[in-house]
Amino acid sequence: MNDLSPPQDQNRDDRCPGTSYTDMLKADTRRVPDYLFAESTEDMGDAPIPIERYVSEDWARLESEKMWPNIWQYAAREEDMPEPGDTVVYDINEKSILLVRQKDHSVKAFYNVCLHRGRKLRTESGPAVNLRCPFHGFSWHHDGRFKEAPCAWDFKHLEAKDMSLPELRVERWQGFILVTENHDLPSFRDWVGPGVEHYDNWRLGECYTGAWVGRVIPANWKAVSEAFMEAWHSIVTHPQILGFTADANTRYDLYGDFLNRAITPAGAMSPHIKGKDQFYVLKSLEEFIGGGDSRARRATGDPADLKGFDADDPMLARKVLAQANRDAFAAMNGHDYSDATDSEMLDNFTYNVFPNWSPWGGLVPNIVYRWRPWGDVDHCLMEVRILMRTPKGEKPPKSAPMHLIPDDQPFSSASHLIGAALAGVFDQDMENLPYVQEGMKSSPNGVLELGHYQESRIRHFHRTLEKFMDGTLPA
To answer: Tell me, what's the pLDDT at 360?
Structure first.
């Protein structure tokens, strides 16, 4: 049983008053693993963040030179390229990378460039008989070995040269395919370090891409990603979720240089709401998603069916909703959730892997964000995937291509893919982000002032970014 001793941190002056996430864990109906109880914080100071990092093309060039080649990048999911000969084109900044599934089902990654005249070998993902340049027909095998060139008589001077496609390093983790240009980096797990083991229980490798949308946002990739590193903007930006989301009670944890997390409790009221009961929480969630919706990562609890819990239980809504999710997702995919904690069936586990992706944890459909620079310093491509648990005994289906939302269309135009409730939240964020980018350019002092705790993940991100800029990283 969990420790049900009195709350220890309700009166901390550096945390929002009220029931903490740790208190909620103590009331969980299942045994809670240590990695949820354990906090990992450090004092990140209060220094302001220079706006130059978001608006300067010179700074963006330094990122391209010093950071991007020296990190592990999430380039694809396994289900994007399930069969030998399948390819994925992954573009980042000015570089294009070509991933190719091999006969033995391993994956190789090459620079997506013909060694003859420099054309991209492929401009789209998809199956390929071989890697043949559309310009003059220079061709390579799937494993990167040179195959042939038309008019070979004119290229006898290349016969003694190694014309194999230059490779990047590839690793695979939890269904993600990762690449790096730096062949001296540690393995991905060692590079990330503490915290990466949390995913061993969540088994994202068992999941498939149930939906995948992208949209070009008129704001720097860091400004957009940082909007998803804290939850407390919900009080103004997302007021419709406050009835069932404890926004300001989010816990923020920092691990090493390359991982951090926010755990935002669900099935609990925001501390900004006063005088409401547990049935208000259940009603608020039902109004938000209009009934159960797997794309919203949760089922609603029926106020008439309390799942055997006491109506006066101060954690009633969390317990009812967690059990509703266990029942709903077990029926959907045949997996056993009977030992899954209330927290892992409910809460928003927003992990960020440096620098630009966020694979959510937990055991319900997992959101994955990725943000890429796009064209110039003022734009980025934001991608949202929803990973669904593959039904027991079945093979994961191949991913559908990313649905790119037109620039003049909101996320809600993709409600049929990601659900109206989730799309509406993203559209509310988009009401802010373009104006953040514009506003920063008008700043007379050139800095951003952040909160000490609730925006500590942003500071953590910038500390690591600074290490790449000053040469401390890569180690």
So the answer is: 98
The DSSP call for residue 361 is B
pTM equals: 0.95
DSSP code of 374?
A: E
Angle (deg, nearest 10), helices 278-289 and 316-333: 40
**Contact yes or no for 209/400 (Cβ under 8 A):** yes
Neighbouring residues of 452: CB distance < 8 A, sequence distance ≥ 6: 14, 44, 46
Q: What is the pLDDT of residues 399-412, one digit of tens each?
A: 989 999 999 999 99
Structure tokens, 331 = 């029926």
The single residue listed with the structure tokens 């209330």 is 342
- Domains plus CATH for the chain? 15-69+191-475 (3.90.380.10), 73-184 (2.102.10.10)
Q: Find the range with the poorest average confidence among 109-123, 294-308, 350-364.
A: 294-308
Cis peptide leading into 355, omega within 30 of 0? yes
Sheet strands side by side (includes 139-140): 131-132, 139-140, 146-148
- Under a CB-based contact definition with an 8 Å cutoff, are residues 266 and 321 in contact? yes
CB atoms under 10 Å from CB of 443, counted, come to 11
Does residue 377 sit in helix, strand or coil? strand
Q: How far apart are the first and last CA of the chain?
A: 43
Q: What is the pLDDT of residues 434-447, one digit of tens each?
A: 999 999 999 999 99
Question: Amino acid letter at 465?
Answer: L
Closest C-alpha among 255, 266, 264, 260 to residue 232: 264
